Amino acid sequence: MKENQKLYRFIPFSELVDICEIPGQLILKSPRLWDDNYEGYFYRKLMNEESMPEMFEKVNALIKDSDLDIDGDLQINITTTKQKSILTMLLFSALYYLIFCISWSKKRESDALWRIYNYNNRSLRISTKLSNFEKIKFLHFHEVEYKTHSGLKKMLDGILVRNHNDDKISLKLFMPFCIKRKAFHHENEVRMFYFHDKFPTVPILNLIETEKHNAEDLNSIIKGIDTCFDKNDCFITSNYKKILDIYLSPFKGENTTCINLKKYNLTSKDIVDDVMVHPLAPDYYVEIVEKYCKRFDLKFLDKSKLYEFE
To answer: CB burial class (10 A; 0-12, 13-18, 19+) of residue 179?
Structure first.
């Protein structure tokens, strides 16, 4: 996408207030809160007890003996690919809790969008462009692709692969949230992701670069991992679920994250290019929004004329 790509978002008045009032903030939600089970499908399968064995087999099939190289500064008792597979599953599960998102649309307006984001005929449409966010760190923009059911499954199967260039396992981090069924094509979405700067304390060694951690702590994790297999080396879902719940406990309360605009010397005017009101909004409400926009020197486009006969 080009830096001047226009983006639109249909919001309640309260969201505009969040952006405008000091210090000004963008509130991003965890994709875990989304209704569509296909969005974040890969991560949802990692978290679902019924599909955990399937995901373990998928990860374990990618792991090779050469992935078990140990950092020389750490004496970590990892001896099997199965242990490494559990570590990898734990990390990928934690990522699900560390990604936050706001959805935008490349479509200026439509009857469907105004109806979906109605807010009792009080919704607003704000516009922006990619370049407005260039000062903010940790943001990633991705267009949503709309697929048939078969095309959707094919893309989802390609989320976790071995990279042939460097022979490392590659997770397409945001792809699970950027594939939707064709039934949602009318939204024409662009997703703005914030990848949290926290990082789970799990070693993936040469698969993923991480900061160094205390070997004693890592070995305690690995002792728990060993309980995930029975005497025949078969995966035990219930024991893995216990380890996963303990490991994810620090992240589970984080359903939203806020980007402080003041921190980046930004104001609402730097982010919002203009404001439009729902086409069926009552006149008194339109006046309230107009006065509020004038207070922050935001360009006000009045009420949408979508239903007006010209």
So the answer is: buried
Dihedral pair phi/psi, residue 74, rounded to 5°:
-125, 130
Local confidence band at 150 (pLDDT 50, 70, 90 cut-offs): confident
pTM to 2 decimals?
A: 0.86
Residue pLDDT, tens place only, 67-116: 654 443 434 455 688 888 888 888 888 888 889 999 999 999 999 999 99
CA angle 175, 176, 180 (to 5 degrees): 95
Tokens at residue 113, please? 């969008």
The string of pLDDT tens digits covering residues 180-215 is 999 999 999 999 999 865 544 433 433 333 344 445
Which residues is 142 bridged to in the sheet? Answer: 191
Q: Report how far apart, in Å, the C-alpha atoms of 224 and of each of 63, 104, 247, 257 are.
A: 20, 42, 11, 31
- Cα–Cα distance list, 37 to 47, 180, 302 (Å): 12, 10, 37
Provide the 3-class DSSP secondary structure of residue 78.
Answer: coil
Alpha carbon dihedral 118, 121, 122, 127, in 10-degree steps, equals 60
